């Protein structure tokens, strides 16, 4: 995938050099709020601050590559009134523009649904949005299945 003057690749984490992979782990600790400072995070992960700062702007989890794009979420929902409505309201609350909604007929109390969302105006990253959606009662599973 190409963006302006940079070229991006999707690669498996198991072939990343250790310093780059550990930089990603530091970023995840900081993003989740588990650790408040870079100093604490690099100490826990076992890399130097200079390694972190060298690689931090060049490594991102896949979900961050979806910024400014369209994503499709696949959902498993309990067959309860208001679950899908709560999902749509939460997406809108964080600035997502809902483009399509598809929901199948519930089987054994579980409904499959998919929602395509334009993420240009999102006020949170995709991981945080998915975490917020997972907190909604009646949501069993959410996966990001597609990005455009």
What do you see in this structure?
With 148 residues, this protein is of the alpha+beta class. The chain has helices spanning 18-32, 38-45, 49-55, 83-93, 126-134, and strands spanning 2-3, 6-7, 70-78, 97-103, 110-118, 139-147. The strands form 2 sheets. A 4-stranded antiparallel beta sheet has the order 4-5-3-6, with helices on one face. A two-stranded antiparallel sheet has the order 1-2. The mean pLDDT is 85. Belongs to the UPF0735 family. Pfam families: ACT (PF01842). This is UPF0735 ACT domain-containing protein SAMN02745196_02273. It comes from Clostridium collagenovorans DSM 3089.
Question: Secondary-structure map with pairings?
Answer:
Elements: E1 2-3, E2 6-7, H1 18-32, H2 38-45, H3 49-55, E3 70-78, H4 83-93, E4 97-103, E5 110-118, H5 126-134, E6 139-147
Antiparallel strand pairs: 1-2, 3-5, 3-6, 4-5
Helix pairs in contact: 1-2, 1-3
Low-confidence stretches: none
- The CATH homologous superfamily of the largest domain corresponds to ACT domain
CATH class of the largest domain equals Alpha Beta
Q: Average pLDDT across residues?
A: 85
Give the SSE order as H and E letters: EEHHHEHEEHE
The best one-word shape is elongated
Radius of gyration: 18 Å
First and last CA, distance: 11 Å
Helix content: 25-40%
CATH architecture of the largest domain: 2-Layer Sandwich
């Amino acid at each position: 995938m190409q963006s302006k003057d940079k070229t991006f690749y999707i690669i498996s984490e198991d072939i990343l050099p250790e310093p780059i992979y550990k930089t990603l782990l530091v970023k995840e600790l900081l993003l989740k709020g588990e650790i408040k400072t870079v100093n604490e995070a690099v100490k826990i992960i076992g890399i130097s601050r200079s390694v972190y700062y060298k690689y931090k702007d060049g490594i991102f989890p896949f979900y961050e590559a979806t910024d400014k794009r369209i994503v499709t979420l696949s959902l498993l929902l309990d067959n309860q009134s208001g679950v899908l409505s709560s999902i749509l309201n939460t997406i809108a609350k964080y600035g997502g523009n809902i483009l399509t909604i598809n929901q199948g007929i519930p089987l054994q109390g579980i409904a499959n649904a998919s929602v395509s969302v334009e993420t240009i105006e999102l006020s949170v990253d995709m991981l945080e949005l998915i975490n917020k959606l997972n907190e909604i009662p009646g949501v069993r599973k959410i996966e990001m299945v597609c990005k455009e």
